[in-house]
Design goal:
It contains 4 helices and 4 strands, in the order H-E-E-E-H-H-E-H. The protein is α+β, with helices and mostly antiparallel strands. It has a 4-stranded mixed β-sheet with strand order 1-2-4-3, with helices on both faces. It binds one RNA strand through helix 1, strand 3 and helix 2.
RNA sequence: AUAGCAGACUUAUCUUAUCGACUUGUUUUGCAAGUAGGAAAGUCCGGACACCAAAGAGUACGCAUAGCGGAUAACAUCCGUCCAACGUGAGUUGAGGACCAGUGCAACAGAAAGAAUGUACAGUUAGGCUGUAGUGAAACCAGGUAAACUCUAUGCGGUGCAAUGCCAUGUAUAUUAGAGCUUAAGAGUUACUCGCUCGAUUCUAAAGGGUAGGCAGAUAGAUUCUAAGAGUAAUUUUAGAACUAGAUAAAUGAUAAGACUAGACAGAAUUCGGCUUAUUAGUCUGCUUUUUCU
């Protein structure tokens, strides 16, 4: 699998984002938090993702940009965890809830944990249904 | 040489490898090219541009600016110059229009700083008036103060690209236009005057509203550099040359290794000229003080 992250794979629609925050469930692996929702979206990929960093925790735009780039990079290199295990289309948003910047290696491991948690959660919900 | 003053300029880590993002071009899932700032920041001034008769006209109020002259699209910016204060000096700073329009205010001293008339002495006919002394920067037809009200001169409508225009999708009446009927007093804006706008119901016609879906606006411009001319200068005229970040839940990156003087402040969002603030490493020019030598 190619580790790309194109426009189609990113969450763009304001309407979908609004629905996501209203109806979505969430999983946590500090300093990351994911809100997800099973729904149709605008592309053929298994999932669309977005990234957010609160202005409250990082006042400077430079720091927010840096963290968003790190998160995107971690997701890009591990997205097969998600893509290989989903039957239905999902959208999700990954937020950074820490107050300080983490190193890349540590963040990479946390991302792996977060994505695994997400997959387990999805399977659990499907089993219940 | 030392201490200092003023001004100008450069830089804003680099190289290689792997994996990616956005735009454009090829053309096909590849390839090529380009891809943050000097402050992109604060949003403090001034414009361009767009829309809004609830936008206009006059008065009042309010706000801003304030020696003089000039530059500019414009400015609270910039240049020149006078004056004042500070500094040995180079220079720095300036809330530097007007108290013969009115009102107010004034430490200490002093009887009193203006609805006052004291004390002592002298002059004069008593009352009273006049003069002198004493305090103070200033003692009555006087002066100071406008970072006091005020006056003068000049300028000022509002909202900001989520402006605005077009297309698509699409549901139901909250929209618009015209006509008929009833009412003509009232309401709205900016304090007032003028102006302007506004009702309920019926019928007819049209396509609005919402969804922030797409395209345009939106990246070449009061641009930068060089030369010559004008000007003390800011700046300007002419000629030549150069320059494409353009995203929109928002690209311009991540990791590894190496190098050096060991990398600061910090991320475009319609756009331009300034100001202010943050900050890395350095270079150059002019000048001043003190000391030494010729």
């Amino acid at each position: 699998m190619k580790h790309t992250l194109e426009k189609e794979e990113r969450l763009k629609s304001r309407k979908l984002i609004e629905r996501l925050y209203n109806d979505g469930n969430s999983v946590k692996a500090f300093p990351l938090r994911m809100v997800f929702l099973q729904t149709e979206h605008t592309s053929n990929f298994p999932a669309q993702m977005g990234v957010s960093v609160a202005k409250r925790n990082f006042k400077l735009a430079v720091h927010r940009n840096r963290i968003k780039r790190l998160i995107r990079e971690c997701y890009r290199l591990q997205k097969e965890i998600v893509y290989d295990n989903l039957d239905k289309p999902y959208i999700f948003m990954i937020s950074y809830i820490g107050k300080e910047e983490w190193k890349y290696d540590e963040l990479f491991l946390k991302m792996e944990k977060l994505l695994t948690l997400f997959i387990n959660e999805v399977k659990k919900i499907q089993d219940e249904v």
